[in-house]
Model the fold of this input.
Amino acid sequence: MNIVILLGAPGSGKGTVAGKLAADNANLKHVSSGDLLRGAVAKGTEAGLEAKGYMESGNLVPDALIARMIKDVVAETTGDVTMLLDGFPRNLAQAEILEEMGAPIKSAVLIDVPDEIIQDRIAGRRTCPKCKAGYHVKNLPPKVEGVCDNCGSELTIRKDDNPETVKDRLVVYHRQTEPLIEFYKAKGCLKTVDGMTGVDSVAAEFLKVM
Ligand code: AP5
Done:
């Protein structure tokens, strides 16, 4: 098993690209820290109860909480698999924790999208609560409005996708997550793709550079 880290602002397309690549390639596994946390919140586990307030305000949950979840997924992933790690690490401390887990990091790929585009991307996002498929009302609409193409569930809007919280999430991204770009550049494994070219083209470029 090895790991490809997805870097990029909220709404830059990390989940969309990783979901598409994993659906098309049997040896790619999409692991989203946000989905793990939202799953824990929905189940009302101890970790979920602790995470909920941080997530709704757009702040990062404590490092130890999310690191435990990622450690479990890394430990249970074996064989000829590349893990597309979406949303972790989110700061330098988490990057060090990931190094300590010992799984080989193949690359860190930044999906580059300017801040001005992020509000529109997130305002139009719709998510399937059951199968986690992601849509956009204009850029990636479902066949039937409000209904998931894959499983027929009613699409929902994430609680943290309101304009005020998105502003806060961008501040957190620039302060805490962006330093990872230099961190992985210094390690010689940073790649960058233009996130403005449409979902299929971003996914193809990502697969090429990763
Ligand atoms: P998380 O779920 O990780 O959210 P995020 O990083 O803010 O990223 P998003 O899921 O919002 O965006 P995305 O880049 O996946 O974009 P998407 O593909 O959906 O985290 C949520 C919260 O959990 C955090 O705020 C924090 O509280 C907590 N958390 C998570 N990980 C943590 C950690 N490691 N440490 C501490 N706390 C943590 O795309 C967005 C929209 O754009 C979609 O509608 C899509 O259809 C559309 N789109 C995508 N690509 C394109 C394209 N190329 N062209 C046009 N439209 C596109």
